[in-house]
Amino acid sequence: MLKERESQGYQFEAAEGSFELLMRKAMGTHRPAFQLLGFRVIVEKKQDHGASSSEATVMVKVGEVVELAAAVGAGPVNALDHALRKALEKFYPQLREVKLLDYKVRVLSADRGTESKVRVLIESGDHKDKWGTVGVSENIMEASWQALADSIEYKLLARDE
User: Which strand ranges, in their side-by-side order, compose the sheet holding 118-125?
Assistant: First the structure.
């Protein structure tokens, strides 16, 4: 499973959170804290205004409860991060402590232009720890979602222990 992911472009050296989750999934011990039902991100740029605006909507399922949340942000990933937290914080208040500390994108196959696969690395932290997560896709928002979701899941591992 690890070799397959690495062949797809995943890199786990700086993504210990994603690595831990992958190992737990492989061993059958991972209990997902939530299930993604869908997300939508809108970026709007108006000719009359200098700045663009981003809005994200997320639908997740926690247990048997479906939660829909929308948020705006400084960019599409920031909006997605805010919407995900908004949807989950009432179930998991400890997520209020988590901050996105660093966000990096690397193009993996530049010869494909705008169809290139990208790797997103996110560093997150709370008042005592830092951890990294990774996502890979041809769609930068999908790769960002993977890394954001892993970051939240990793923080919530403590509930299992």
Answer: 99-107, 118-125, 130-137
Q: For 29-41, what is each residue's pLDDT tens digit?
A: 989 999 999 999 9
How many H helices and E strands in the chain?
4, 6
DSSP bridge partners of 51: none
The length of the chain, given as a count of residues: 161
Count CB atoms within 10 A of the CB of residue 50.
Answer: 6
User: In DSSP terms, which residues pair with 120 in a beta bridge?
Assistant: 105, 135
Q: Do residues 101 and 123 lie in contact, with contact meaning Cβ atoms separated by under 8 Å?
A: yes
Question: 143 is written with which tokens?
Answer: 């790769």
Q: How far apart are CA 36 and CA 56, in angstroms?
A: 14
CATH 3.90.550.10 applies to domain 1-30+93-161:
no
Domain spanning 34-91, CATH architecture: 2-Layer Sandwich (3.30)
Instruction: Note the pLDDT tens digit of each residue in 124-133.
Output: 999 989 999 9
